[in-house]
Amino acid sequence: MTEHTFGATVADSDAPTLSGDPGLFTPAPGAAPMWRMIASQARMELRVMLRHGEQFLLTMVIPVLLLVGFSLVNVLDVGEGARVDALTPGILALAIMSTSFTGLAIGTGFERRYGVLKRLGATPLSRFGLLAAKTLAVLAVQTIQITILCVVAVLLGWNPTLSPAGVLAALLLVLLATAAFSSLALLMAGTLRAEATLAGANLVYVLLLGLGGVLFPTSSFPAPMEQAVSVLPITALASGLRELLAHGALPSAGTFLVLVAWTLVCGLSASRLFRWE
N or C: fewer beta carbons within 10 Å in the chain? Predict the structure, then answer.
């Protein structure tokens, strides 16, 4: 009698049954939209970059020390005017390069060696999605860098000359340089061994620090050498920022074209040659 009553109760109830809603337990496989995958990967990349002690030293501490040291101690001829006004544009360019090239290349190279990228390659995230996520994370770190360096420079007496058009030009320079350096970093990290990437990225960092017009204008170089280094992305960025921030003049079109050319060549090469393992 109890079993009969229980059975009747279940049969007469309004509870949903498996046959009553065919789509209730139907799986719906599929990848998330590309923008959501890129945003999620970018957040993860940003957390990794901020937690890495060596990258923090490279991207935050060294540029600040160079700015403060060379602004307060007269050991480097930076031309006429306040030392901090002449040094700040080049230090900003160095900070952008340290994050978007050196740190990104080394970090990605070892991610590739340890199999992190191989596992990402098994997900729906494409090469373009990975490149975009890493670039977004780099831009976030650079925002912090630029803010800190500008505050330190102002405390040292920096007085930049900027117009609304100059602000837009500076923003465009930073974005183009970030794209160029990031593409070059991922091209190196995606094609070379991790040890070779580590050595190559550090070597390029040191060479461009001395030859790229970071601490002093390239006009002090001999004419042939000045023309040779003018096609480097760090030279275009440093000279463009120096024209904007120190002299209040807009950079030439050639400055932007150099960065666009590096972005296109390195970006297309990285998208084609980048290997997950």
Answer: N
